[in-house]
């Protein structure tokens, strides 16, 4: 039987040199939020039976949609703790300042509280994605500039996967580590230390129904992936349509996740700040690479909090190959 390590103990024992306790406490807060959100998502299918999410409870309070609920939990747990100067959520257009009545902290939290929430009704795994930056100016309360930092500035990132089991996977720049929630006593236990992208990759993930919308270079890449060239890789198609679930499987088995730009959707669908950049940080920590097809995701400085970006992330050999196909097309 392997040793039992809780996420709290692991965070404390592996806090980065620059951390002065605030980052450690912030990661604790996120782990607690994950437990609370998991408790609700695991009961989503019982709304009509137990009268929970989406109904009106005994106090007459209107229950909320799960993604709004997850947003509120993240804000309520993190806004008053003195660790943050500002937050950004996929669920709110504007930045979320720390109320003047609370002490401000040194970090910025960007998050997608519940990505893939359209999958809840069909019982498909969904996830929370988060990234943590330092505030640009310690003496000021957070501003828009604080959430528009390039992913290269991330000090930590991670996700929670609400699936067959609930997992929290994170990195503070010292490798990627996975924890599985033991629901009996509500503890995240270390289950996947030092995750590294396996080679050779096993899967590719893309919505092939959009093939006709992609540029010729991307189409040639997909043809290559699907075995139409002599040097094609031996990979299988796996696409859940839930970013965190697709990402997690490829992290554990090796592969590439693609959400290309389209002729009518030049910037792709996925969000740079709180989806692509945190996952790019993780995949690079696990030995992989993330690109928008022409440059590293982590080098892109956002110009808008909810900016979209084309996304290719996974084994470096595959991501660099799609960049080569796109470069070849650009040069024609
Ligand atoms: P499509 C879910 O709606 C989501 O935002 C991601 O979780 C997922 O990767 C993507 O959209 C799926 O998009 O266009 O293939 O349905």
Could you explain how this protein is built, in words?
The chain is an alpha+beta fold and 332 residues long. The protein has two domains: 7-192, Fructose-1,6-Bisphosphatase, subunit A, domain 1 (Fructose-1,6-Bisphosphatase, Chain A, domain 1, 2-Layer Sandwich), CATH 3.30.540.10; 203-331, 3-Layer(aba) Sandwich (D-Maltodextrin-Binding Protein, domain 2), CATH 3.40.190.80. The chain is 30% helix and 22% strand. It is built from nine helices and 13 strands. The protein has helices at 7-13, 22-41, 47-50, 66-78, 144-147, 216-225, 243-253, 272-285, 316-331, and strands at residues 84-89, 96-97, 107-115, 126-134, 156-162, 166-171, 176-182, 187-195, 203-205, 236-237, 255-259, 289-291, 311-314. Strands 2-1-3-4-5-6-7-8 form an eight-stranded mixed sheet, with helices on both faces. The longest helix has 20 residues, at 22-41. It binds 6-O-phosphono-alpha-D-fructofuranose.
């Amino acid at each position: 039987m392997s040793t039992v390590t809780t996420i709290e103990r692991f965070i404390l024992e592996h806090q980065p040199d620059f951390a002065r306790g605030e980052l450690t406490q912030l990661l604790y807060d996120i782990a607690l939020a994950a437990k609370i959100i998991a408790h609700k998502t695991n009961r989503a299918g019982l709304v009509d039976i137990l009268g929970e999410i989406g109904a009106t409870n005994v106090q007459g309070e209107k229950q909320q949609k799960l993604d709004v609920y997850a947003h509120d939990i993240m804000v309520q747990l993190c806004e008053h703790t003195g660790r943050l100067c500002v937050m950004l959520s996929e669920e709110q257009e504007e930045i979320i300042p720390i109320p003047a009545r609370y002490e401000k902290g040194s970090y910025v939290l960007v998050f997608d509280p519940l990505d893939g929430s359209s999958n809840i009704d069909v019982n498909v795994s969904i996830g929370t994605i988060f990234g943590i930056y330092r505030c640009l100016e310690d003496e000021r309360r957070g501003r828009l500039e604080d959430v528009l930092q390039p992913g290269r500035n991330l000090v930590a990132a991670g996700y929670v996967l609400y699936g067959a089991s609930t997992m929290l996977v994170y990195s503070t720049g010292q490798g990627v580590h996975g924890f599985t929630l033991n629901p009996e006593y509500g503890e995240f236990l270390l289950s996947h230390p030092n995750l590294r992208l396996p080679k050779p990759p096993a899967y590719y993930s893309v919505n092939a129904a959009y093939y006709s919308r992609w540029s010729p270079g991307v189409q040639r890449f997909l043809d290559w992936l699907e075995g139409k060239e002599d040097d094609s890789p031996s990979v299988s198609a796996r696409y859940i349509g839930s970013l965190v679930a697709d990402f997690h499987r490829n992290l554990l088995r090796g592969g590439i996740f693609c959400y290309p730009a389209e002729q009518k959707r030049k910037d792709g669908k996925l969000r740079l700040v709180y989806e692509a950049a945190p996952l790019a940080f993780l995949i690079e920590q696990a030995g992989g690479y993330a690109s928008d097809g022409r440059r590293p995701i982590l080098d892109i400085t956002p110009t808008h909090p909810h900016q979209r970006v084309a996304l290719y992330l996974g084994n470096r050999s595959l991501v660099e190959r799609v960049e080569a196909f796109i470069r070849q097309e650009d040069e024609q």
